[in-house]
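This part of the workshop introduces the protein records we will be handling. Getting from the letters to the tokens is the skill we practise here. An example says more than a description, so a record of this kind follows:
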Amino acid sequence: MDQETVENERNEKPEEHRKPEPESEKTNILKTVISLAVYIGVYYVLFRGHLSYILLLVIVIFFHELGHFIAMKKFGYRDVQMFFVPFMVAYVSGEPHRVSQYQKAVTLLAGPLPGIVLGIICGWLYVQTSHPFYFQSALLLLLLNVFNLLPVSPLDGGQLLETIFFESNRAIQAVFIILSSALLAYFAVRTHQYLFLILVPLLLFRLRSINSTARIRRVLDEKQIDYHKSYEELSNDDYWTIRKEMINGFGIVHGGLAFSLADSAFAFACNNRNNISVALDVTITFTKAVNIGDVLTAEAKENHNGRSIGVYLISITNQNNKQVAIFKGTCFRTGKKLV
């Protein structure tokens, strides 16, 4: 059987065996606009009468993330998207495709360095004009971007260190992430900035993700599947093989994904009163299997709101409105303001 016949057979496969079409650029832009609107709305509710400060903060954050966005686009990252997350600033995501270490480093520096330069310019303009707008702009630009260069993951400076020194050695990278988690936790407790505690479980989840990715890559290497190809270059067979390796041994989606979704909903729900709250205890019960292609939705309900304790129930449902998991989370109210 020649190569042309094989390709024809692949193209004639039933629709259910074809890989999904990637989301369009318009869809990604719409997601960015919606997340930005929610971001501004949340802060406007918390800081009524301070819209000008909110917009300035958004502009500074947008300028920082725009640097990452432009660099990713230039270096051929796939599916580049920008999201604004209340209380967690914003982030740009994308899948690198044959990107060198140098290009990754430039991408990481493309956010903070232009912001620092612009901050210095605003500082100079303030000295010349004494206009408070330039002072506020310089302060925000320098604080945000210099802070992001600290050598602690997941900040840009920490990711830069990982890229240059640790990425080739998974064991050293794991140690660095664990140390970063410990430093963030210490900083949060020491300075009473408990919001930073949210980053600790995210870092540990990233560590688990790195280990899972390494395992999947070993399996794909054994099957001689080139996972460095772009999405467009992947054949339907290769796509479904890779996707199959990303589910658990029973052919269903790993329960950790539903747990992560519920845990995120719990974090947003218990902190929505502008009172920093941290988890004391969480449990989850899986009521139905999650299959490939399911669309999951998390809905959080406040079961108890005490002075120091809050209890929340999070229901996870699929696209058919069938419950797949129920999550119960208990939080402790620190009494500290979130913002």
Summary: The chain has eleven helices and six strands. Residues 1-16 have pLDDT under 50 and may be disordered. The two ends are 66 Å apart (CA to CA). Residues 51-74 form the longest helix (24 residues).
